[in-house]
Amino acid sequence: MASDALILGFDTSAAHCAAALLCGDRIIASRAEDMPRGQAERLMPLLQEMLAEAGAEWRDLTAIGVGVGPGNFTGIRISVSAARGLALGLSVPAVGVSTLEAQARPGILPAVAAPRDHVYIAPPNGDPALLPVAEAQTLAGNLGLTLDATSDPRQLAEAIARIAGQRWQTTTEPPAPLYIRPADAAPSRDMPPVLLD
Predict the structure, then answer these.
(1) What is the pTM for the complete model shown?
(2) Which of 20, 93, 94, 178 could lock onto 157 through a cystine, CB 3.0 to 4.6 A?
Protein backbone atom coordinates (compact mmCIF):
# COMPACT_ATOMS: atom_id res chain seq x y z
CA MET A 1 0.00 0.00 0.00
CA ALA A 2 1.19 3.57 -0.65
CA SER A 3 2.42 5.78 2.18
CA ASP A 4 -0.68 8.01 1.85
CA ALA A 5 -3.19 7.83 4.68
CA LEU A 6 -5.79 5.12 4.06
CA ILE A 7 -9.18 6.17 5.44
CA LEU A 8 -12.22 3.91 5.63
CA GLY A 9 -15.53 5.78 5.75
CA PHE A 10 -18.94 4.16 6.20
CA ASP A 11 -22.55 4.89 7.04
CA THR A 12 -25.73 2.98 7.96
CA SER A 13 -27.87 5.92 9.12
CA ALA A 14 -30.67 5.20 6.62
CA ALA A 15 -31.92 2.25 4.57
CA HIS A 16 -28.48 1.51 3.20
CA CYS A 17 -25.05 0.15 3.98
CA ALA A 18 -22.37 2.32 2.33
CA ALA A 19 -18.60 2.51 2.51
CA ALA A 20 -15.67 4.18 0.78
CA LEU A 21 -11.91 3.85 0.94
CA LEU A 22 -9.80 6.99 0.54
CA CYS A 23 -6.06 6.84 -0.16
CA GLY A 24 -4.48 10.28 0.05
CA ASP A 25 -6.98 12.41 -1.86
CA ARG A 26 -8.31 9.62 -4.11
CA ILE A 27 -11.32 7.34 -3.56
CA ILE A 28 -9.98 3.90 -4.48
CA ALA A 29 -13.10 1.87 -3.71
CA SER A 30 -16.69 2.51 -2.73
CA ARG A 31 -19.81 0.45 -2.28
CA ALA A 32 -23.44 1.02 -1.40
CA GLU A 33 -26.31 -1.38 -0.94
CA ASP A 34 -29.93 -0.43 -0.34
CA MET A 35 -31.38 -2.34 2.60
CA PRO A 36 -34.26 -1.45 4.90
CA ARG A 37 -32.86 -3.82 7.53
CA GLY A 38 -29.94 -6.16 8.04
CA GLN A 39 -27.16 -3.56 8.19
CA ALA A 40 -25.72 -5.11 11.36
CA GLU A 41 -25.17 -8.42 9.57
CA ARG A 42 -23.97 -6.89 6.29
CA LEU A 43 -21.66 -4.06 7.37
CA MET A 44 -18.51 -6.00 8.30
CA PRO A 45 -18.63 -8.37 5.28
CA LEU A 46 -19.18 -5.35 2.99
CA LEU A 47 -16.16 -3.57 4.50
CA GLN A 48 -14.03 -6.72 4.16
CA GLU A 49 -15.06 -7.17 0.52
CA MET A 50 -14.26 -3.54 -0.28
CA LEU A 51 -10.83 -3.73 1.37
CA ALA A 52 -10.03 -6.92 -0.57
CA GLU A 53 -11.19 -5.30 -3.82
CA ALA A 54 -8.74 -2.44 -3.18
CA GLY A 55 -5.89 -4.81 -2.26
CA ALA A 56 -5.83 -3.54 1.32
CA GLU A 57 -6.08 -5.17 4.72
CA TRP A 58 -7.47 -3.98 8.05
CA ARG A 59 -3.95 -3.30 9.37
CA ASP A 60 -3.33 -0.87 6.48
CA LEU A 61 -5.97 1.58 7.73
CA THR A 62 -4.81 4.92 9.08
CA ALA A 63 -8.19 6.06 10.39
CA ILE A 64 -11.93 5.41 10.25
CA GLY A 65 -14.70 7.86 9.43
CA VAL A 66 -18.30 7.11 10.35
CA GLY A 67 -21.65 8.76 9.76
CA VAL A 68 -23.13 9.69 13.15
CA GLY A 69 -26.54 10.89 11.95
CA PRO A 70 -29.06 12.27 12.17
CA GLY A 71 -31.07 9.40 10.79
CA ASN A 72 -32.33 6.00 11.83
CA PHE A 73 -31.58 5.34 15.51
CA THR A 74 -30.68 1.67 15.04
CA GLY A 75 -28.61 2.31 11.92
CA ILE A 76 -26.62 5.04 13.62
CA ARG A 77 -25.86 2.79 16.60
CA ILE A 78 -24.72 0.00 14.26
CA SER A 79 -22.15 2.11 12.41
CA VAL A 80 -20.93 4.09 15.42
CA SER A 81 -20.38 0.95 17.52
CA ALA A 82 -18.61 -0.75 14.58
CA ALA A 83 -16.33 2.27 14.11
CA ARG A 84 -15.49 2.46 17.79
CA GLY A 85 -14.77 -1.27 17.96
CA LEU A 86 -12.59 -1.20 14.85
CA ALA A 87 -10.70 1.86 16.09
CA LEU A 88 -10.01 0.18 19.40
CA GLY A 89 -8.98 -3.13 17.83
CA LEU A 90 -6.78 -1.54 15.15
CA SER A 91 -5.39 1.27 17.36
CA VAL A 92 -6.43 3.93 14.86
CA PRO A 93 -8.56 7.07 15.38
CA ALA A 94 -12.26 7.09 14.52
CA VAL A 95 -13.86 10.32 13.34
CA GLY A 96 -17.59 10.98 13.60
CA VAL A 97 -19.09 12.96 10.70
CA SER A 98 -22.60 14.40 10.64
CA THR A 99 -24.73 13.30 7.70
CA LEU A 100 -25.74 16.93 7.20
CA GLU A 101 -22.11 18.04 7.01
CA ALA A 102 -21.28 15.25 4.57
CA GLN A 103 -24.16 16.35 2.30
CA ALA A 104 -23.25 20.06 2.36
CA ARG A 105 -22.76 21.79 -1.01
CA PRO A 106 -22.85 25.43 -2.11
CA GLY A 107 -26.36 26.83 -2.50
CA ILE A 108 -27.97 23.88 -0.70
CA LEU A 109 -29.49 23.50 2.76
CA PRO A 110 -28.87 19.79 3.31
CA ALA A 111 -31.67 17.82 4.92
CA VAL A 112 -32.27 14.26 6.05
CA ALA A 113 -35.78 12.85 5.74
CA ALA A 114 -37.45 12.11 9.08
CA PRO A 115 -40.80 10.51 9.96
CA ARG A 116 -44.13 12.35 9.72
CA ASP A 117 -43.21 14.82 6.93
CA HIS A 118 -40.31 16.30 8.87
CA VAL A 119 -36.63 16.77 8.00
CA TYR A 120 -33.44 17.19 9.97
CA ILE A 121 -31.52 20.30 8.93
CA ALA A 122 -28.48 22.27 10.08
CA PRO A 123 -28.82 25.93 9.06
CA PRO A 124 -25.55 27.80 8.48
CA ASN A 125 -24.14 28.84 11.87
CA GLY A 126 -27.06 27.10 13.60
CA ASP A 127 -27.69 23.94 15.55
CA PRO A 128 -29.24 20.89 13.88
CA ALA A 129 -33.02 20.84 14.17
CA LEU A 130 -36.07 18.77 13.28
CA LEU A 131 -38.64 20.78 11.30
CA PRO A 132 -41.75 20.12 9.20
CA VAL A 133 -40.78 20.02 5.51
CA ALA A 134 -42.79 23.19 4.69
CA GLU A 135 -41.09 25.13 7.49
CA ALA A 136 -37.65 23.90 6.38
CA GLN A 137 -38.38 24.95 2.78
CA THR A 138 -39.38 28.43 3.97
CA LEU A 139 -36.21 28.70 6.06
CA ALA A 140 -34.07 27.58 3.11
CA GLY A 141 -35.75 30.17 0.88
CA ASN A 142 -35.16 32.91 3.45
CA LEU A 143 -31.48 31.97 3.49
CA GLY A 144 -31.28 31.99 -0.32
CA LEU A 145 -30.71 28.23 -0.37
CA THR A 146 -32.49 25.22 -1.84
CA LEU A 147 -33.63 22.49 0.54
CA ASP A 148 -32.26 19.13 -0.57
CA ALA A 149 -33.17 15.91 1.23
CA THR A 150 -31.85 13.61 -1.49
CA SER A 151 -28.77 11.59 -0.78
CA ASP A 152 -26.72 9.06 -2.71
CA PRO A 153 -25.36 6.57 -0.13
CA ARG A 154 -22.13 6.01 -2.07
CA GLN A 155 -21.44 9.77 -2.28
CA LEU A 156 -22.29 10.08 1.41
CA ALA A 157 -19.70 7.43 2.35
CA GLU A 158 -17.13 9.11 0.11
CA ALA A 159 -17.77 12.50 1.73
CA ILE A 160 -17.48 10.92 5.20
CA ALA A 161 -14.11 9.40 4.24
CA ARG A 162 -12.87 12.75 2.85
CA ILE A 163 -13.92 14.70 5.97
CA ALA A 164 -12.36 12.06 8.23
CA GLY A 165 -9.20 12.33 6.09
CA GLN A 166 -9.00 16.02 7.01
CA ARG A 167 -9.64 15.51 10.73
CA TRP A 168 -8.14 12.21 11.85
CA GLN A 169 -4.93 13.75 13.20
CA THR A 170 -6.77 16.19 15.48
CA THR A 171 -9.68 14.04 16.66
CA THR A 172 -9.58 13.23 20.37
CA GLU A 173 -13.12 12.04 21.16
CA PRO A 174 -14.61 8.78 19.91
CA PRO A 175 -17.60 9.15 17.57
CA ALA A 176 -21.02 9.41 19.22
CA PRO A 177 -24.51 9.27 17.70
CA LEU A 178 -26.07 12.61 16.78
CA TYR A 179 -29.66 12.34 17.99
CA ILE A 180 -31.77 15.45 17.42
CA ARG A 181 -35.04 14.04 18.72
CA PRO A 182 -35.80 11.50 21.44
CA ALA A 183 -36.46 7.87 20.52
CA ASP A 184 -40.03 6.82 19.76
CA ALA A 185 -39.70 3.92 22.17
CA ALA A 186 -40.31 4.60 25.86
CA PRO A 187 -39.34 2.68 28.97
CA SER A 188 -41.97 0.32 30.33
CA ARG A 189 -44.33 1.80 32.92
CA ASP A 190 -44.84 -1.58 34.54
CA MET A 191 -43.30 -2.07 37.93
CA PRO A 192 -40.21 -4.28 37.81
CA PRO A 193 -40.58 -7.68 39.45
CA VAL A 194 -39.59 -8.02 43.09
CA LEU A 195 -36.41 -10.03 43.49
CA LEU A 196 -36.44 -12.49 46.36
CA ASP A 197 -33.31 -13.57 48.16
Answers:
(1) 0.90
(2) 20
